[in-house]
Amino acid sequence: MIAAARQFLVTTAATGDRTYTELAGGAKEAETTKWRNGGDVKPQVLAAPPETGDVTLKNGFDPERDGPMVSTLLRMVGVLRTTIVKVPLHGDMTRIAGAPPLVYTGCLLRSVKPPESNANSGDPGTYELVFSVEDVV
Questions:
Q1: pLDDT digits over 105-116, tens only?
Q2: In a 10 Å sphere around its CB, with 0-12 CB exposed, 13-18 middle and 19+ buried, how is residue 106 labelled?
Q3: Cα gap 104→52, rounded to integer Å
Q4: What residues pair up with 127 in beta bridges, in sequence order?
Q5: Between the N and C ends of the chain, which has fewer C-beta atoms within 10 Å?
Q6: Which residues contact 81 (CB under 8 A, 6 or more apart)?
Q7: Is 112 helix (H, G, I), strand (E, B) or coil?
Q8: What backbone phi and psi angles, to 5 degrees, belong to 95?
Q9: What is d(CA 22, CA 57) in angstroms, rounded to the nearest whole number?
């Protein structure tokens, strides 16, 4: 059965027991070049070493719980390294036995976006953390 996007538990060692509402990015890809020698009809496809794209974590902002953490993380941009784990879940939000998590390693905190404010909005306040990732396994 196909999983809904909500059927994942996302955590990072850097923020303790918090779970994240959204994880975006983290694709692993290799740049390619097509090369033809003189007279060749079909190209040779050459690949660079694979790289993993940045990962963005997003969560609702609770001022009492998250305020001190966001303040601390703002001072750790470009310094903090951590691991991010994405665990697949069943529809009842229980862990799937035998299903391995995706583990993003060597994650360097690249940016912290504190919650925006808007006196005319009832939308939830959110914060975002962007990490540059070494690898995903």
A1: 999 999 999 999
A2: middle
A3: 9
A4: 59
A5: N
A6: 106, 107, 108, 109
A7: strand
A8: -65, 140
A9: 6
